[in-house]
Inverse folding.
């Protein structure tokens, strides 16, 4: 069979599973690595997009969740809990359904995209809106998992990182070697940690000849790692990365320093501009947080930090359908036409 079997089956020997681990999967992973035409032109490099919105629940979180929920099930957990800016909760809710488990999610009040809320709801999760930000939600989720019999499935759970590192394997498998630079949005910093682990493991085992430089980008109103201090009131339109005190802060710094990379910040304006460019010029619709990687690459290129001729991969982390408000906002209203070909052609500017 040619069907992709899900990342645990595809990379079983590189993951902490045994023959008796109950694999909870929606066949996640195996996502497209799409050549980016305009970005390649603008940078003089070979730029690719790792389109993680193509995962079953529409974000990279599914990679971590198949591992975390499988492990929780193996350990006999009957319930899982997470804090989330939306995607983790959507993924946890779906995988909990597959596992026959109860799922509880803690989200910052009024600060998550509607599509993500809808996912958690339709999958039957118990949702608590916390009067606080993501960092408060994570503190609460950790506390609950210590006191009550629920498994924590945030990226502080090492199984999450293990699952997410497989994205690096896929990229090396597709390109034949690691890229020169890998660019990611950074929120709680689990994903940059996971990619770096994956690249290092593949290189150590001779599956790649080298590791890439890791470039991470935060939103400028939520950039604790760049600013060097926790942000108490993180702000950004990219709600997925509206995080003021990343759990994997030290690991992100290690990824940056060990790889000779960088972590910088981009403004909401830069994020929205990259968001529109990806949709209108590359045909790839991502959510705003995902566009932070591309915004960062373009910003770095403007600063003269991108030597031509390199191979660069940007991870775009989540599907644009999760948060379509930004696509509609400011766009012209569609015009209404009668059922008449000539009238329709006129509005479309078509000439016979
Ligand atoms: N992009 C998207 C679409 C995300 O949902 C997240 C994180 C990130 C980037 C950042 O990844 O946290 O590993 O550095 N979302 C988490 C959530 C926090 O709850 O869904 P990170």
């Amino acid at each position: 069979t040619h069907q992709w079997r899900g990342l645990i089956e595809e990379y079983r020997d590189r993951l902490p599973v045994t023959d008796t681990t109950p694999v909870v999967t929606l066949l996640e992973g195996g996502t497209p690595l799409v050549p980016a035409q305009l970005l390649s032109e603008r940078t003089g490099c070979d730029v690719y997009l790792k389109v993680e919105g193509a995962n079953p629940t529409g974000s990279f979180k599914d990679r971590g969740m198949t591992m975390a929920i499988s492990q929780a099930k193996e350990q006999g957990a009957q319930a899982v809990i997470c804090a989330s800016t939306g995607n983790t909760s959507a993924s946890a809710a779906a995988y909990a359904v597959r596992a026959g488990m109860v799922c509880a999610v803690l989200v910052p009040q009024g600060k998550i995209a509607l599509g993500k809320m809808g996912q958690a709801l339709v999958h039957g999760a118990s949702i608590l809106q916390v009067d606080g930000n993501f960092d408060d939600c994570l503190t609460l989720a950790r506390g609950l998992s210590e006191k009550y019999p629920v498994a924590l499935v945030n990226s502080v759970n090492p199984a999450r990182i293990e699952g997410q590192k497989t994205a690096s394997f896929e990229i090396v498998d597709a390109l034949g070697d690691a890229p020169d630079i890998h660019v990611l949005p950074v929120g709680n910093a689990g994903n940059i940690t996971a990619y770096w682990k994956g690249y290092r493991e593949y290189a150590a085992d001779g599956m790649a000849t080298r590791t890439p430089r890791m470039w991470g980008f935060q939103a400028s109103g939520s950039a604790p790692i760049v600013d060097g201090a926790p942000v108490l009131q993180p702000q950004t339109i990219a709600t997925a990365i509206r995080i003021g005190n990343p759990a994997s802060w030290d690991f992100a710094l290690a990824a940056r320093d060990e790889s000779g990379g960088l972590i910088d910040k981009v403004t909401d304006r830069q994020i929205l501009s990259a968001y529109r460019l990806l949709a209108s010029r590359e045909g790839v619709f991502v959510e705003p947080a995902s566009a932070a990687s591309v915004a960062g690459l373009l910003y770095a290129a403007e600063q003269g930090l991108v030597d031509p001729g390199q191979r660069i991969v940007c991870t775009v982390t989540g599907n644009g359908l999760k948060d379509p408000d930004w696509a509609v906002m400011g766009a012209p209203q569609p015009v209404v036409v009668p059922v008449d070909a000539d009238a329709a052609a006129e509005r479309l500017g078509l000439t016979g």
About this structure: The first strand starts at residue 33 and ends at 35. The first helix runs from residue 7 to 10.
